[in-house]
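Final report, closing paragraph on structural work. Over the funding period we assembled a curated collection of sequence-structure pairs, and we close with a single example.
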Amino acid sequence: MMGKFPYYRRVAATLLVPAVLAGCGSSDSAPAPPVIQPPAIVTQPASVTVIAGGPANFAVAASGTNLTYQWKRNGADIQGANAASYALATTQLGDTKSKFSVVVSNTAGSVNSTEAALTVTGVAVVAGSLTEKGSADGTGSAARMSGPACLTLDGAGNAYICDQDNYSVRKVTPAGVVSTYAGQTPADQSGFPQPTTGPADTVRIYANSILADNIGNVYFGSGTQLLRITPARNVELTYDFPISSLDGRAIGALIPYGLAIDGASTLYLANQLSLRKLSPAGKVSMLEGKEVASAQFGTVAPYRTGLAVDGAGNIYSVYKGKLRKLAPDGTSFDFAGSSDTGTAVDGRGTAARFSNSLWVSLAIDPSGILYMPDYENSTIRKITPQGDVTTVTAAGPLPGKPMGIAIDGSGNLYTLIGNALVKIQLQ
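Its predicted structure, as stored:
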């Protein structure tokens, strides 16, 4: 049987090459082009809510071949945003309500994602818990407080808090590290005990007001006494408030719910019955209130809470839902609000309305703008030097009813909500 041999034809007499037989294919044929899958979005970008100053991250998941991406903000291309994800590294309050989307493309077409909304809030929990209470030092949400009612800030941005149910003063650093600065929980927790003095770790404190000065002292009002925690963390009696007194070292008053200090280191006290000042030399003077018989607690004046002093020497105090102003010349008048309290109403002067709550305090910035927690209305109110009252909304809604207020050197507000220290970024 003969074997199979290729069929040859003679070329140029000496070279034999295989002949191409019909039906055996062609050397000129090309491979079929690859199939390009058009883009399709599998997972749309999600809306996000972030704290001002932090990043905002958006991402898309898509199928298809050789995809390209172009992110948009409010319909306009974002230069260099050409990946499956996009991060806005540092957010600001003004970024809120921005819309982010992405176009996914290849040679087979393109597809637009839905828009993802960015919400930027200036409200953040620094330490503690909005709902859970307890007594634990720690950082951020690991710390616990119980019944915090008043706060102050020192020049370094450390917060000092009246942690009433734990009979202590707590310190919170700007990084959210919480420690017990003074006080300890007594075995007998009934009533409102008078504070004791001595080393900070051994004393008992039930503070209703608190104030840090510029040399490291932390003052607090407790019972009928004004005390201070020294930089060495010793608790000392600064002033005792006996019932009967005229101007002098003793003060006839009850619990001081408001403390303030001016640039000359003069202390101011607002209590249930009077407004007084204490000079650095220890002299006490009545600013408002009338002395009566000692059996009637020394003075008669409106019930006061909250206190602030501006750079011009004007003194502001809160009582019965109104903000009162005492000018350096002794003129005293209702500056904002009315005894007709209830729902928050913005406006100028006495046309504005606040809620009437015992737990009212004041903070003032270098330009003389006042901030006040409106407890029952779950808001922070802003009062200009002209008496215009508005509700602070730029930072977003508050997660509860605010108690106590302080302002730092960067214009951030701090308040107490639930059992937490909350930061409110205004810009």
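Residues 125-288+301-424 form a domain with the Neuraminidase fold (CATH 2.120.10.30). Residues 1-26, 244-253, 291-302 have pLDDT under 50 and may be disordered. We thank the funder for supporting this effort.
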